[in-house]
Amino acid sequence: MAKELKFVMLLDCYGELLTEHQRNLMELYYCEDLSLAEIGEPLGITRQAVRSLIKRTEGILLHYEESLHFAERLEKMRECFENISNAAEGVENKAILDTIQNEVKRGLTLL
Fold first, then answer.
1. 88 to each of 13, 75, 91, 92, how far by Cα in Å?
2. What does pTM read for this prediction?
3. Are 57 and 22 in contact (CB under 8 A)?
């Protein structure tokens, strides 16, 4: 998994456990794709300070994942739903196929 995608997933899973400041910086950097300078300027802090805060917050997110494995489990569940969906393509009974597809969609929205 690409580094950026990994931290976006971790932010989705554990973002509420971060301070508002940490979460905002991570969202600006990883989700909005702003540069360190673009993040730091309106906050009145240097690029290096932003980088330091991001690195520290990445460590916090990695620690949460090492302890809880929530993002890893979510990814495995998504893979299971994809496998179920692919296997369902072989089902000839339209009613059963529709039920399987609807339940897979519902399950994915619950993740």
1. 29, 20, 5, 9
2. 0.79
3. yes
